[in-house]
Amino acid sequence: MSNIFEEIKNSFNRGDNAIRKLIFINSAVFIVTTILGKIPFEWTKIILENLPLPHLFHVFIKQPWSLFTYIFMHANIWHILSNMLWLYFIGEIFRNLVGNKHIYQTFILGGISGGILYLIVLNIVPHYAEMNEAIRLVGASGGVTAVIIATATFIPEYEIRPFGLFSIKLKWIATIFILYNILALGNGDNDGGILAHLGGAIFGFVYVKWMKGQYFLPNLKGVFKFKKKVKRPIRDFKVNINNQSYTSKTSDAHSQKEIDSILDKISKSGYDSLTKKEKEILFKASKEL
User: What is the CATH number of domain 2-211?
Assistant: First the structure.
């Protein structure tokens, strides 16, 4: 256990780190809002009521910023602790592969996607739409779920050892997580949060497919289109190796296949497991940012 906390401490002492910053922001907001909740003033009550995401659409249109601010709100210490632990352990894997920029985008847009699905379902499905009681959504779990699913989509065969007890591949963590949320939906305990999880999960999956050039983002003409045969990524995506950034730039199918194979090997066994020839191929086929 001490090694785990030492690892977290060392991570926070490093330079620019999106995971560290997101954990800090979420923790700071939790502390501030907890303090405000103890102050018996009307203005503090108004502030705190306008930050969570309401399910009633006529309330939401009066506070559209809540689609963003709800992500950084948490109900209690266990709520934020569980979200931040997931973000740290899985998010660090994803950050080491794709860099800080994609962490921010996955977390924020995943949280927003979760909020949108929550709003749509609770205002369209009769079971929820008929409820007059105001429900407010808080929590970073939509964004955190997006990061989890994005990581599992990017490197599904990557194995982790939770607390050093057993090994499990990311694809099975993602599968179990999604199945649990689907089966739990409708029991009434936390349907809003579950919808946020599922919305974030959908975004995380699509985002990585977009990064790799397998999906086109939607435009004014239509919806996502799947490209069945991709000779090279539609866009370049960054991979961080030993704190250096490289961008996939291969142009022919054979070279791209080699690079993908090398990246898979890195995800499974680490950069040091590459042969001298594989390292040369990677460096020659990549352009340093």
Answer: 1.20.1540.10
